[in-house]
Amino acid sequence: MSHTAHIPSHRKPRRSSSKLALRAGVAGGVLSTIAVAASPAQAEPVTETIEMPTLTNVDLSGALSSAVAASAEATQQDALVQDLRAQEDAAAGKAAKDAKTAKEQAERKAEAERKAKEAEEKARAEARERASRTAERTTLSASSNSGDSDGGSSSSSDSGSSRSTATGSAAAIVDFARAQIGDAYVMGATGPNAWDCSGLVQAAYRQAGIDLPRVSGAQSSMGTSVSLSDLQPGDILYWGSRSGSYHVAIYVGGGNFVGAQNPGTGVVERSLDYDAPSGAVRIL
């Protein structure tokens, strides 16, 4: 007997083939059952049908007609709005034009009234001036007649000289200047019926064959300076500085001068006391 005969074996006993087959069959059945339970149930086919509405030619025509009508109405409404706006714009433009015309007419009327008033005032001033000249001439004539009756004589070299003492070129200058009394004053005018101050002096000296500059400043710079107490007919009086005078006139004797004064008086004869000059020059 072997010495290992009583030692049990460590190997597991082999299972029989029948038991293995049985266990395999049971496992297969269980898995089949689980697979069938897990698979979704097959949906039944849908047999119900849904009926859709049928669009007929009548329905389409009606919808189209409604759409066309709505579009036409909208177009007409828009046209009415545009026409209304055009009328409003035209009315506003006409109102503005009428207002502008009315304003222009009012301004023209006001301007015409202003000019008429100025003309009336000028006519009154000229009438007063003519009356004053007449009175002065009457006084001078009376004084002259009185001097002649007394046998008196006047000097030609002092400020009391009269026109009767002017001779030659001086007489021509004085006579021309006095002949323009009553003419209008117009800035820049040189005759024959309207003058400014230097235009009258220039034209008067032209009668004596003497050409003077056109403006007062240049005229007062000519010749030699003389005192206002030693004036002779034909001397040029000036206002302002000699080389920058703003007004000139002609001494005519008798303490008077003739000049184109301003638009209100025109050409007048005035006493030296009326507007004392700044100085005088002698060209003759």
Describe this protein's structure.
The chain has about 280 residues and is of the alpha+beta class. It folds into two domains: about 80-150; about 155-280, endopeptidase fold (from Nostoc punctiforme) (Alpha-Beta Complex), CATH 3.90.1720.10. The chain has helices at about 15-40, 55-150, 170-180, 195-205, 215-220, and strands at about 185, 195, 225, 235-240, 245-255, 255-260, 265-270, 280. The strands form two sheets. A six-stranded antiparallel sheet has the order 3-8-4-5-6-7. The chain has a two-stranded parallel ribbon with strand order 1-2. Strand 5 and strand 6 form a beta hairpin. Helix 3 packs across helix 4. The longest helix is centred in the middle third of the chain and has 93 residues, at about 55-150.
Short description:
The protein is an alpha+beta fold. It is built from 5 helices and 8 strands; from the N terminus they run αααββααββββββ. The protein folds into 2 domains: 82-151; 154-282, endopeptidase domain like (from Nostoc punctiforme) (endopeptidase fold (from Nostoc punctiforme)).
